[in-house]
Specification:
The complex is a heterodimer of chains A (about 300) and B (about 180). Chain A is an alpha+beta fold and about 300 residues long. Chain A contains 8 helices and 11 strands. The chains are: A alpha+beta (about 300), B mainly alpha (about 180).
């Protein structure tokens, strides 16, 4: 194959790996400036088409939350000593009174429960408000560790099934010609097409539980029906939504998440979207790994 | 105002530019997000080494560039585009000139790119919109437009070259080689 055209796209186009993975690493003289131009515009176009004010804010907040104090070792040592003293005092105080468990411990227990190799079935109720429009949806969700899930429900376009086997996300509406599948890392392309009611960001209980202790202030507010009611004060910033007012009921023996309520707020095509969601544990099942695979 | 508050101001000022720099170098947005976070964490930890007499943007993009090379070694071409130090320097030069454009925010500077979209041929504009706005891969665009895969790539590459030269013509962005294309 020769690349002897006159313009740089003919001469160097085969070296460009920004459009697929076919580019070669064997560089030709003079190619680097052209490739740099292509990359520059490629990055700018991607940035232009993925601008999202709430995602930007979430990005900055997530970063700021991760910053450790920029002190030297003396500062860190003093801080560590202070934490130890406080922890010792807290243990002593807690051991002297009968009180609710620590909220962080309940969340950790719920997370461990979610990682048990069990297929947990939840009913998911969504109340979506977008401008004047309101929708109510009920979906059945089965979660399994390793990013496996199954969802059945309906959207504006009719009933559907969706799932993920840990590597590939698939979507199967009633009309077979519209079914599709994508690698998990590109799942947002699928959810972007499906509108407001299906965003993996807020269906992902595992990520939510991991982020709650860092992003919010947790507290146990009481006992209910054999479980501990935990509230999170603050906001968890997800890819397209901010999750607020998270409340959950955690079984105090098994750590089972029996109920999760939250409000997700975001923006879609210039309109504010608010989603009230409620997960309710329905049953535990034993489906096997094949149940999560693409059915076609 | 403590150093953390000052750092947050710097992050807010440079976040979009650093993200665009990373989106130019890695394939998926999630990887760009990870390197973005790591870039500013490294910058924060090394803030004492930052020479305040120099602009912050090139310094933090330099960190991003080193991390891109590290991630490339770790993850390979499936996640990070081929690049070496020369490529990253050339890329950084374009971002440096872009930084000098009029406009207080990154978004205001992007107005030039938006305006340049109007100078593309219909075929180039369609290919670029389908790829970057609608997220379609070249094969999907080829099927949609009933043209060949290589033709789609050419439209995209020629469209990007035209956008670069349009921006260069209206603003002080030089060809990275220092000469004419």
């Amino acid at each position: 194959m020769t690349h002897d055209g006159h313009d740089p796209e003919d001469r160097f186009g085969h070296l460009d790996d920004s459009l697929d993975e076919s580019g070669t690493e064997l560089r030709e003289a003079g190619a680097a400036p052209w490739l740099a131009q292509q990359r520059f515009v490629h990055g700018m176009l991607r940035a232009l088409n993925s601008q999202d004010a709430s995602a930007r804010e979430a990005r900055v907040r997530a970063l700021m939350a991760r910053l450790q104090p920029a002190n030297g070792w003396r500062g860190r040592l003093a801080a560590a000593a202070a934490v130890l003293v406080l922890a010792a005092a807290a243990v002593w105080v807690l051991s002297t009174i009968d009180r609710l468990p620590r909220a962080e411990a309940m969340v950790a227990q719920a997370l461990a429960s979610l990682h048990e190799p069990i297929d947990r079935a939840f009913e998911l109720q969504l109340d979506v408000e977008r401008g004047e429009r309101q929708q109510h949806r009920t979906m059945q969700v089965v979660l399994h560790p390793g990013s496996r899930f199954l969802i059945t429900g309906d959207t504006t376009f009719g009933a559907f099934r969706a799932g993920c086997d840990g590597e590939e996300v698939w979507f199967e509406p009633q009309l077979a010609i519209f079914r599709s599948a994508l690698p998990l890392k590109e799942a947002h392309r699928l959810t972007d097409r499906l509108g407001d009611v299906l965003d993996l960001g807020y269906l992902d209980l595992d990520t939510l539980l991991r982020r709650l202790p860092a992003d919010t202030e947790l507290r146990c507010v009481g006992r209910e029906d054999g479980g501990i009611r935990v509230e999170a004060i603050g906001t968890v910033h997800l890819r397209r939504f901010d999750l607020r007012s998270v409340r959950m009921l955690v079984d105090d023996r098994s750590g089972l998440l029996r109920d999760v309520e939250a409000v997700a707020v975001g923006e879609r095509r210039g309109a504010r979207v608010e989603v009230k969601l409620r997960f309710r544990h329905v049953s535990d099942r034993s489906l096997g790994e094949s149940a999560y695979r693409r059915p076609w | 105002m403590d150093s953390r508050d000052l750092f947050e101001i710097l992050v807010r000022e440079h976040a979009d530019m650093v993200r665009a720099f990373l989106l130019a170098s890695v394939r998926d947005a999630a990887t760009a997000e990870d390197i973005f976070q790591e870039t500013f964490l490294v910058a924060w930890r090394n803030l004492a080494r930052y020479d305040r007499a120099l602009p912050f943007g090139p310094w933090v993009r330099g960190i991003a560039g080193k991390l891109v090379l590290n991630w490339r070694r770790r993850l390979g071409r499936a996640r990070v585009l081929f690049c070496d130090e020369t490529d990253l320097q050339l890329l950084d030069r374009s971002f440096e000139r872009f930084q000098a454009l009029p406009g207080d925010t990154f978004d205001e500077k992007l107005d030039v790119l938006r305006a340049c979209m109007g100078t593309l041929s219909p075929a180039q504009r369609d290919a670029i919109r389908l790829h970057y706005e609608h997220g379609l891969h070249c094969k999907e665009i080829a099927a949609r437009l009933h043209i060949g895969f290589e033709a789609v790539k050419k439209h995209l590459q020629r469209g990007r070259a035209a956008l670069f030269h349009c921006m260069q013509g209206s603003l002080p962005i030089p060809d990275p080689s220092g000469g004419a294309a």
